[in-house]
User: Fold this.
Amino acid sequence: MESSASLELAKHALLVFGIILAVGTFSGLIARLLRVPDVVVFLLVGMLAGPSVLGLVDIKADSTVNQLILIFGSSYILFDGGASIRLKVLKEVWITIVVIATLGVLITAAITGAAAWYFLDVPVIVALLLGAVLASTDPATLVPVFKQIKIKERVAQTVMSESAFNDAMGAIVTFTVLGVAMGSGEFSAGDALVDLLKQSLLGILIGGILGYMAAFLISHEKFGFLTEYAPVVTLMAVIGAYMGADGMHASGFMAVFVFGIMLGNQESLGFKRVHHDEAILEDFIMTTALIMRMFIFILLGAQVDFGLMNQYLIGGAAVVAVFMLVARPATVFLCALSDRRAKWSFREMLFMCWTRETGVIPGALAGMLVGMKAPGAQIIASVTFIAILMTILIQATTTKWLAKKLDLLAEG
Assistant:
């Protein structure tokens, strides 16, 4: 009986995967015709295919399969984003990235928390917890948008890098506030800073080492014996970077992002690639990242709890409006203006104010709080889903329009 039950579960999972791939392929074509980022259509189609409407896709948010897809999918998308980063651009804007990914998270959390306290009438600690959950941007959403819409290099790469580097800070702030909320600890700025530095530096170190090793084994003139297996090497290294960093209590997402940067800047490391091999690897990465986007955002849409959202819809929408229109602009202008070296223009900062979609990472944090029965967890989960829907449907669909208005589209 147990074997039969396991077999039925496996068949059900396989059927759902097939449905996601079929629906995702059709959705991708629709997105191309409508000229909108595909993650928008994937999310909407997921909501229709989920148990609340058609019932075609029903994978629980706390299931092993869902967690596997979220972790690997987000990691691979982030690796893809890292591979498109150029070190020469990073050197120019690194101060902005560091400030906005650390201090910026605190500013966003504080302003959003104040809005939650006012509009939702919740205790201050629950409001701050909600602000912390929403404070980090989402690489799984932002990277695909910027891969499809060609924005001027330094703006796009700053926003993508921020989304990777603020993951650790967002998680640290969330669980620090949670410790206070559950009476298991007190806030310590010193401990939080040490933890952030540890997670960040270890993540960068692990990603850098694995990235260099991968580039060496793929592209070295004498020792690059894995050239033909470059796609497999990327899969192994993405998993290795995430799991290695996570096992050392570092940021796994930062590790895979840095790994992508190393592999995408092989010439700067002294390696040369044959054009044919490079084209094969790029095609593989592009296809794999597309499949991961399909799975992540269709599943994310399918797991939207409409009943829970409706309970706090008006107050939640007001909080997200402040989050988008007040917290983000304040964060960008306060952090970017401090970087005299980058010399950001008003148009560039205005564009960055509008690009902070919420998605997988905040959704995962909210899910963890529900599982831990944290104070106000249901309210936090509800508002997080509202933020995911509002930011992706409003901001992602208008990114290209705004970039054109501000003359920030890349030529070619």
Remarks:
- The mean pLDDT is 82.
- Residues 2-58 form one domain.
- The chain is about 75% helix and 0% strand.
- Residues 87-120 form the longest helix (34 residues).
